[in-house]
Automatic annotation (TrEMBL):
Residues 1-26, 549-575 are annotated as: Disordered. InterPro entries: Cyt_b/b6_C_sf, Cyt_b/b6_N, Cytb/b6-like_sf, Di-haem_cyt_TM. Keywords: Cell membrane, Electron transport, Heme, Iron, Membrane, Metal-binding, Respiratory chain, Translocase, Transmembrane, Transmembrane helix, Transport. It comes from the Bacteria. The lineage of its organism: Bacteria, Bacillati, Actinomycetota, Actinomycetes, Micrococcales. It is found in: Cell membrane. GO terms for biological process: respiratory electron transport chain. GO terms for molecular function: metal ion binding; oxidoreductase activity; quinol-cytochrome-c reductase activity. This is Cytochrome bc1 complex cytochrome b subunit. It comes from Janibacter melonis. Its cofactor is heme. Its main location: membrane. Residues 32-258 form the Cytochrome b/b6 N-terminal region profile domain. It catalyses: a quinol + 2 Fe(III)-[cytochrome c](out) = a quinone + 2 Fe(II)-[cytochrome c](out) + 2 H(+)(out).
Length: 575
């Protein structure tokens, strides 16, 4: 190749050297980041995420615990897949666990024993995996309760709430699939129950069971299929949903608890870098260390105690993992007369309702609730400030009713154990729980609503009169009264910042021409539900009321009875 200069080069002798453009990422963090930014343009997005502000409140860590638990499950699951054999082939066990030596068992169960006794650290990793799975479901459930009771599901976060419901439901299925993989007697009993649930499906039950198990029970296909579902299909869906959840959180303004300086238009907290990233990183290792400590000290899922699965045997007092207990309890409470025969077909609704319908219906109602509440209240605004549960007594009552319903079903899953331990009749326990599953939620709703209203009235009284000091003072006229300390503005703001209750007003059923409007019945039902939602609400103290309380006690005393009379009139009209 010639290096001789071309004649035309002399014409450009005075030109300045051409400079290459340097990306912002190259200037800030060095060559590697700049190289990536030049090819992906990611600096802008990363910069946005690094400046994202997160509020500082302990309850927001519940979602982080769920995320960290899922990550730990994925990491420990990769370790377990290196030694687990997901096949039904029969072998004679000759491993380290002496009581089972010489016993015929499946390769799946034998490999689980090998991980527990022959692989260094295998038992610890198995237990971390199991405890992390339980913590994932627990933290996800508690996180959803926090979101529900504080109203964090409202616009614009309805999609994120729906994603959370799907995550919670799929977590139950993922847990059951992993719980069934060891192929011990306890997990095999659970699989046998699952096959019975499939058979109870009307019309398609036998076909469904045959397709899932690859023939008659137990077959040789179910463990490999569950293994693929447990390590590939469901984890991929869970990670995708979790990623979508986190992306939506990053794109939207983060919710925050009400307080001075906090509005729907700002977020008071710390940016991701450097404060929040350091705290989140440390919190991950705290969660991991706590799980490692629990797994080292507390035994769980000791599969060697139960022995290999035998279709002709079962374990006495077998119980599912706690997260599936409510479905098992529903099966025990459903009456036998729900199984009947018509036209030569047997309808086992006493099994199908609890085993096949309960979970999707329950999570379907949960996913639809934000849209139902928005329709009932007519509230279409964006909400970035969280509610205090006491300020939404009906929603809080509905949540407690749901928890009571769930709790009764969960207790019902152990009706046989309770009968043995307390020397009671299992039939009496079942009858009591059948009554409680209907009456308990109603009582819980009523009691919770009354407690919330009482707390609202206490907040109102505190704002108007201040805190009780316990100091008695004698007045000029010889009377005695307690001195009340006025609230500081910051504390008062939290007690009065919520919106007053505004039920929907029923529109006229006819138009200007006297013609009946369409959907009149729907509007009446919506107005009635709106009045129910806001019934008995205690509105926050207004500036006029606060002024009257501070400057003229008698004016305040006149205001309070008038509002109480108005509230009683509204409640009487509803009745």
């Amino acid at each position: 190749m010639s290096t001789t200069a071309r004649p035309a080069d002399a014409l450009r002798a005075g030109d300045s050297p051409r400079s290459t453009s340097t990306s912002p990422g190259l200037k800030k963090v060095g060559g590697v980041a700049g190289w990536i930014d030049d090819r992906t343009g990611s600096a802008k997005g990363v910069g946005y995420l690094m400046k994202k502000v997160f509020p500082d409140h302990w309850s927001f860590m519940l979602g982080e615990i769920a995320m960290y638990s899922m990550i730990i499950c994925l990491l420990t699951g990769v370790f377990l897949t290196l030694w687990y054999d997901p096949t039904h082939g029969e072998v004679i066990y000759d491993g380290s666990y002496v009581p089972l030596q010489g016993v015929e068992m499946s390769r799946a169960y034998a490999s689980t024993l090998d991980i527990s006794f022959d692989v260094k650290g295998g038992l610890l990793i198995r237990q971390i995996h199991h405890w992390a799975a339980l913590l994932f479901i627990v933290s996800l459930s508690v996180h959803m309760l926090r979101v529900f009771f504080t109203g964090a599901f409202r616009k614009p976060r309805e999609i994120n709430w729906t994603i959370g419901c799907l995550l919670s439901m799929l977590a139950l299925i993922e847990g059951f699939a992993g719980y069934s993989l060891p192929d011990d007697l306890l997990s095999g009993t659970g699989l046998r129950a699952a096959q019975g649930f499939m058979l109870s499906a009307p019309v398609i039950g036998s076909y469904l069971s045959y397709a899932v198990f690859g023939g008659g029970f137990p077959g040789e296909d179910i463990i490999p299929r569950l293994y693929s579902v447990h390590i590939l299909l469901l984890p991929a869906i869970l990670v995708a949903l979790f990623t979508a959840h986190i992306v939506l959180v990053a794109l939207q303004k983060h919710t925050q608890y009400p307080g001075p300086g906090r509005t729907n238009d700002n977020v008071v907290g710390f940016p991701v870098m450097p404060v929040y990233a350091a705290k989140a990183g440390g919190f991950f290792f705290i969660v991991f260390g706590a799980l490692a400590l629990i797994s080292s000290l507390v035994q769980i899922n000791a599969v060697w105690v139960h022995g290999p699965y035998d279709p002709n045997a079962t374990t006495a007092g077998a119980q599912p993992d706690w997260y599936m207990g409510f479905a098992d309890g529903a099966l025990r409470l459903l009456p036998g007369w729900l199984e009947f025969t018509t036209f030569g077909y047997t309808w086992s609704l006493n099994v199908a309702i609890g085993a096949l319908l309960l979970i999707p219906v329950m999570y379907g109602v949960m996913g639809a609730y934000p849209f139902i509440e928005s329709w009932v209240t007519g509230d279409k605004r964006e909400h970035h400030l969280l509610d205090r549960p006491r300020n939404r007594p009906v929603r809080t009552g509905i949540g407690m009713a749901g928890l009571t319903f769930y709790g009764v079903l969960l207790f019902a899953a152990s009706n046989d154990i309770m009968a043995i331990k307390f020397h009671m009749s299992i039939n009496d326990i079942t009858h009591i729980l059948r009554v409680l599953v209907f009456v308990g939620p109603i009582i819980a709703f009523w009691a919770t609503k009354r407690i919330c209203l009482a707390l609202q009235r206490h907040d109102r009284e505190t704002v108007l009169h201040g805190r009780e000091t316990g100091r008695i003072v004698r007045g000029p006229g010889g009377d005695f009264h307690e001195v009340h300390e006025p609230l500081d503005p910051y504390t008062r703001w939290t007690l009065v910042q919520h919106d007053p209750a505004t039920p929907l007003e029923l529109e006229s059923g006819v138009d200007a021409n006297g013609v009946e409007r369409k959907g009149a019945g729907k509007r009446k039902a919506r107005a009635a539900l709106s009045r129910f939602y806001y019934s008995g609400a205690v509105n926050p103290v207004t500036p006029a009321e606060l002024e009257a309380a501070h400057h003229d006690g008698r004016s305040h005393e006149a205001i309070e009875p008038a509002q109480e009379q108005e509230r009683r009139t509204v409640e009487a009209g509803e009745r």
